[in-house]
Every structure is written in C-alpha cells, then in structure tokens.
Amino acid sequence: xxxxxSAEKILNSQxxxxxxxxxxxxxxxxxxxSNTSTREIVEHSGGVCILxxxxxxxxxxxxxxxxxxxxxxxxLPAGKLEKGEDPLDCGIRELKEETGCTADKIYNLGEIYPxxxxxxxxxxxxxxxxLEFGEKNLDENEFLQSYKIPLKDAVSMxxxxxxxxxxxxxxxxxxxxxxxxxxxxxxxxxx
Length: 191
Fold this sequence. Notes:
Blueprint: E1 9-18, E2 22-30, E3 36-44, E4 47-52, E5 58-66, E6 71-75, E7 78-80, H1 87-99, E8 101-112, E9 123-133, E10 145-150, H2 151-160, H3 166-180, E11 188-190
Parallel strand pairs: 4-9
Antiparallel strand pairs: 1-2, 2-3, 4-7, 5-6, 5-10, 8-9, 8-11
C-alpha cells in the first residue's frame, strides 16, 4: 500500500463514441505501481441545476421521463452547458425555459462532480428567489411538467430517499443548510 498518491500517466487514448451529449474515451494508463490499466471516460460539457423557491417557501420542481431509468423522475430545472457558456447564464436560461420564471436574486450553491469514477462532468448549482412567473419556453423535444413542493417537505423527501436525482438532492440540502445557518446571502451572485 502506498502512502503517497500520484497522478496516473495516460499512455494512449482512443475515442469509442462521439455523440451530441457525450463522448466515450478509453485511456490506457500507467499506475503508480508501474502496472497498466484502462479507464473508460465519459466526456460531458457539464450542466447547471437551479433551485427556484417562491415567496411561500415552495420549490418549483419538474417531472420528466428519463430514458436511462425508463421512468418519470422528479428533479429541479437543469440543463446542459453549451460550449463556452457561463454557468449562471445557463441557469437563468433553463429556469425560464422549464418553469417560465425569472428571478431577482440568484445564489451560487457551488459545483458537484456527479460520478468521479467515469465522467469528468461538472454540475453547477444555483438557487433562485424573488421569482416572477411567466410562460415556459421548452425546447422542441422537451416534455416536462412543473409543480411546487414546500421546502420542508422536499428535505423530508431527500432524507426518505424519495428524491434520488443527485443534483436535486445536493441543491436542496445545500440551500436548506446555508439558509438555516444564515450564510445564504454570502452566496448571492445576482440581485
């Protein structure tokens, strides 16, 4: 067992698939013990998740069919970053598209790595308050339904395992903790 960690050296990379949303790359790597191994890497441009919360302390969720799980999933509004796009701009766009909302205040809840074992995707988390409601502007092939759940109920749904989407779980818990500890205002990026 090694006491010191070091980076793996990539000996060879080969793309197995290049798609619209992800690329799949297989790397041959040199390990710190001089053995070789392979790494299957999913390349993804990253995404944004935004937690909209109204003046009555209700979070606006969306439900949509998710093919990998072959079922309808409850989650927060989210979307894929376009190449070179600022995460805050993406969050504002997705909030409007999926819920019809605009926000006077937006808070940066940080970033998460959804699955470090096989993807380098980064998800940027935001919360939006002081909401104004308008018309949704869904993408052409996007089908979802929005609805409200009180924050306290959403936290209970996370703790019971009813909400399973990682970005949603992370954003709800981080928002609740920051607000309860009085630190949310320190994270304001718009407003």
